Amino acid sequence: MTDTIKIHVNIELTPTALQAVVDNAKKIAGTDQRGVYKVDTAEKVSEMITRFLLEKDFETYAKDIGNYPQE
After folding, report:
1. Which residues lie below 8 Å from residue 30, measured CB to CB, with a gap of 6+?
2. CA separation (Å) from 7 to 1, 23, 28, 35, 43?
3. What is the pLDDT of residue 1?
4. What is the distance between the alpha carbons of residues 39 and 22, in angstroms, rounded to a whole number?
5. DSSP secondary structure code for residue 69 in this structure
6. b/e map of 5-32 (b: 16 or more CB within 10 Å)?
7. What is the pLDDT of residues 1-45, one digit of tens each?
8. Which residues are within 8 A (CB) of 11 and not within 5 positions of it... i.e. 6 or more apart?
């Protein structure tokens, strides 16, 4: 795996996308004996976005100054 560093950022995503992550993370984790889900959905979002950025070559995208928003 490529060397990475963890940063904390604020992102915007649709409520539908967030609900999908929550629902699927719960399905994967399942419940404990009391019926409680033990899953950190924020961490799942982080893992998924990290994987997406690596697979889609965000490094090359970030190097292109044309991809930066103009103020």
Report:
1. 37
2. 17, 25, 25, 33, 12
3. 58
4. 9
5. P
6. eeeeeeeeeeeeeeeebeeebeeeeeee
7. 578 999 999 999 999 999 999 999 999 988 888 988 889 999 999
8. 49
d(CA 20, CA 66): 32
Q: What is the DSSP letter of 37?
A: B
Residue whose structure tokens are 């649709």: 14
> Could you tell me the two tokens for 22?
């929550």
Token code pair at residue 28? 């994967």
Q: How far is CA 55 from CA 2, 16, 24, 48, in A?
A: 11, 22, 20, 10
CA distances from 17 to 10, 21, 29, 53 (A): 15, 6, 18, 16
Per DSSP, what are the bridge partners of residue 1? none
